[in-house]
Amino acid sequence: xxxxxxxxxxxxxxxxxxxxxxxxxxxxxxxxxxxxxxxxxxxxxxxxxxxxxxxxxxxxxxxxxxxxxxxxxxxxxxxxxxxxxxxxxxxxxxxxxxxxxxxxxxxxxxxxxxxxxxxxxxxxxxxxxxxxxxxx
Length: 136
Known about the structure:
With about 140 residues, the chain is an all-alpha fold. It has a single domain, classed as lambda repressor-like DNA-binding domains (434 Repressor (Amino-terminal Domain)), CATH 1.10.260. Helix content is about 65%, strand content about 0%. It has helices at about 5-20, 25-30, 35-45, 50-60, 65-70, 90-95, 100-110, 120-135. The chain is globular, with a radius of gyration of 16 Å.
């Protein structure tokens, strides 16, 4: 992940925290996270886990996809985000042909999110599909 993406993500996290009028310490306490972790996200030093993205999204009523990528509507009550446009998908991707190991990994990750926010599941599936396309 490039540093520019982390910095932009951090700026979005700082923006929603400040718009809510919360200090780092107050947000950390509410989410049961170390305030230093949030500071590192906001500075673009690290990125939050998918669990913490979900916590932020639920706390502020924003789409996890917007926090992660800056794309799509910001708030949950806005229109659902459309899936990202993939310019040249591989034949394997188009056919949905994942190896057994890849499919097992996808099932485990999405299984963790079952019963949670639909936007969080959508965000994770989108990230997995993009990783599949661009990380091979």
